[in-house]
User: Fold these one by one.
Assistant:
Number 1:
Amino acid sequence: MKPIQVGLLGIGTVGSGTFNVLKRNQQEIQGRAGRGIEITMVADLDVARAQSVVGPDVKVVNDARAVIANPDIDIVIELIGGYGIAKALVLEAIAAGKHVVTANKALLAVHGTEIFAAASAKGVMVAFEAAVAGGIPIIKALREGLTANRIQWIAGIINGTTNFILSEMRDKGLDFDVVLKEAQRLGYAEADPTFDIEGVDAAHKVTLMSAIAFGIPVQFDKAYVEGITKLGAADIKYAEQLGYRIKLLGITKRTAAGIELRVHPTLVPAKRLIANVEGAMNAVMAHGDAVGTTLYYGKGAGSEPTASAVIADLVDITRLHTADAAQRVPHLAFQPDAISNTPVVAMSEVVTSYYLRLRVADEAGVLAKVTGLLAEAGISIDAVLQREADEISGEAATQTDVIILTHDCVEAKMDAALAQMQALPTVLQPITRIRKEELA
Ligand code: NDP
Ligand code: HSE
């Protein structure tokens, strides 16, 4: 049978990996797909660079619409990124009856509802394994492997750049900016790295996992998003002393009130496997009622790891494109008429435990006042650590750091208690609050 023809839009980090892996492993991939898969046309703004990647036998153009208009192309891969031209091109490819593969989590987390509806109406597939956790086949696991389960929660390290930054800061004592530059050089970071460090990229990914796990629409606008830019080296050190590591986690949970959807730095017990995921590696924990807790680990970014997921989607489409549309796996795991309107709960309603760090005047009675306010608010304390005075030198010798771990309480209650503690004259700096999850 003639190979299935693929058009590639954007041949940068992931696009070049996709072209190279597909070429290198073509025989095995054909054996699995039952048919050859060939990238026969590429669009990129830099035609000369693209041509040097693909060689003289592949047609390269600078107009992506020429690829979509080519009647020989069956599948379009979008690897440009962003919400602008990428959205227009994906919708145009669908309208032209092409199946689409994309790694663009930003696009799907924000415009997924519109894109999946357009694809269903046209009877084409939109596959996005590479959009979440790079090379880890987490979409397949959630959508198919765990299909028997009522999923209870998912928690994941799903941004390689921030995990790389946190690991290097902890292990090597390197500065934030130095490590970020290295992540950019290695091709992990987004075109706009603020998406990585402010938690937006992780929120895009957890939004997609939440929709698949709980059968709700993709609702990025409902996610609570907090990045790592305000984390201090002191917090990484104190967390360590208390038996925890700080990770940027994407968390989504089913609760009686609705679905939690949040990204923030999180203290995780150092003994958990996920706490030991270092560098640009990703890991996702998913808990289902039947299977219990499962863990998926691997490279979450980079040229060939991400290409691995893109090509898995190409193989799936090649196997399924002649099947009746009703027999295919639904985009969001649930059939469109089974998607529910279960609400996403506001962050103020989330119940979790906390790490608090207060820089206070080193005077009698200060700790009692702080813990008294927590007690009045009905917030139970799990542990207290006071930094020894001799670790603070010079002017700061009259100050001390008090670190408090609490038991679970609702976020609104903690917000109110924090406001009261912050107003104490003996609390000298803004209080650091980091959420804590036991992931038991
Ligand atoms: P790159 O910036 O490396 O590649 C994008 C490519 O698209 C560039 O070659 C760019 O050309 C080209 N391009 C831009 N505009 C157009 C256009 N209008 N028509 C044709 N080509 C165009 O990005 P990545 O490969 O890193 O990322 C691609 C997608 O994959 C993004 O959605 C990203 O979020 C996602 N992703 C990336 C991962 C990674 O590890 N890098 C991992 C998982 C997902 P030029 O450079 O000349 O502007
Ligand atoms: N910028 C992303 C990361 C790429 O660092 O994880 C993978 O989606």
Number 2:
Amino acid sequence: MELRKNYINGEWVRAISGKARNIINPASGEVIAITAEGGVEDARLAISAAKEAFYGKGEWRRMSAQSRSDLILKIADGMDARREELARTDTLDNGKPLREAEGDVDDAIHCFRYYAGMIKAPYGGVYDVSDGFGPMHSYTIHEPIGVCGQITPWNYPLLMAVWKIAPALSAGNSIVFKPSSTTPLSSVILFEIMDQVGLPKGTINLVMGSGGTVGQELAESKDVDMITFTGSTEVGQEIAKAAIGNLKKVGLELGGKSPNVIFADADLEGAVEWAMIGVFFNQGEVCSAGSRIIIEESIKDKFVARLAERANAMTLGNGLDNPDMGPLVSEEHMNTVLNYIQSAKEEGATCVCGGYRYTEGECAKGYYVRPTIFDDCTPETTIVKEEVFGPVVTIQTFRTEEEAVTLANDTIYGLAGAVFTTDGARGLRVMKEIRAGITWINCYNPTFNEAPWGGYKMSGYGRELGIHGLEEYQEVKQVNINLAPGKIGWYEER
Ligand code: NAP
Ligand code: MG
């Protein structure tokens, strides 16, 4: 098997240590690729290349927005040309159904095109001011931050990479990117595409390797100006600590335990379908998953029966065959999910459907868990409090709107949330009370390049996507111009 290498300073290179890692297809347990396993020394080389590209030659940050935009559009075209390969790669690496991987690739292509356009739009203000020193103009310009370290998780391997790389690169920064060790393969293809485009040497660097070494070095290094991270809240806390040394800017997109609040007046079939999308899409390995259903007591039994019927009908299988759900990302993660399921059973929640590893036919070789619903959950149930990151949903009930809001906000997280009701005013009222950065009314999970993505509370800080996502990767400079140059006699004429 050919070794997939790191990309540092415009060259494809082995890890300095010579180490490599086996990459596994979770549908079969088979090794599908071997990747270079970088360490601290590889990360340092990449950081110094990125630093030289930005502070030394500075070609990319000095290039006109038009020329940068043209090159970024070529990346999007290059991805378009390899769309099927990218999608198949994420399915093989992560397990997700192919049609969901294809959707990710399309979103990623649009993300590059979105920012390629945005950097040519005018922004920043000009102020006509005067404060006793005479007439002045004050204006603001946006500049890139410098060397950006970027670290991503395994649930949306390509899309999470592009949410970071597209705005950071468009803004004129240099990048050292570290994908999840579990799912690095689509990043290698993305870097092949970016290599073909002809960006200035050292502008983009890929270092595969573990979080504890490569990731930690990116967070700690005094030569990195900004670190953006998507992953678990625990690791996010480590990153924030490591970043203190040079007070680098930090962006954190962390975990969630998001409420899906359903009122009795909601369209029941619609709410069932969106609830499924909310928690079983991408095997439930979604940071914004609607993993806590909070439902009005009077319709609970009917809703749960219908949800269980639909969940039991879901097909599981190899993602390439487009089942409803693929395998979980790894054996280790499957065991974590199964342990959470076990804890719920021991704590007295009622397992309505699923709740076990699925091993029918071909699935015996992979890491499959049936879609799982737990009824009779309380605020103390472990899986109500902690992120499972799998196809597991909890059911809690309420009688009043106030009680629904209290339950919804009873979490350390604040990433997302949804409300289902046909009472428009109530939908808006409840939404306003939910302490979360991403919310939906009468739907769950649709996400757009145009809209900012990020969390409240322990789900992190900063926003990706939209204009906010570009501004995260920019400094703002004020420029003040004296319109009447010359002596003003400040010290003489009082
Ligand atoms: P994770 O264990 O936190 O790992 C995420 C990334 O951080 C990986 O690349 C990992 O490298 C790296 N890492 C691990 N320890 C590190 C350290 N000490 N310093 C620097 N980097 C380190 O998360 P995961 O298991 O991959 O992904 C699941 C989590 O991501 C969930 O909590 C989920 O909610 C969250 N997530 C959030 C969003 C969002 O937008 N808010 C989106 C997707 C996922 P290795 O792979 O080498 O361990
Ligand atoms: Mg991990």
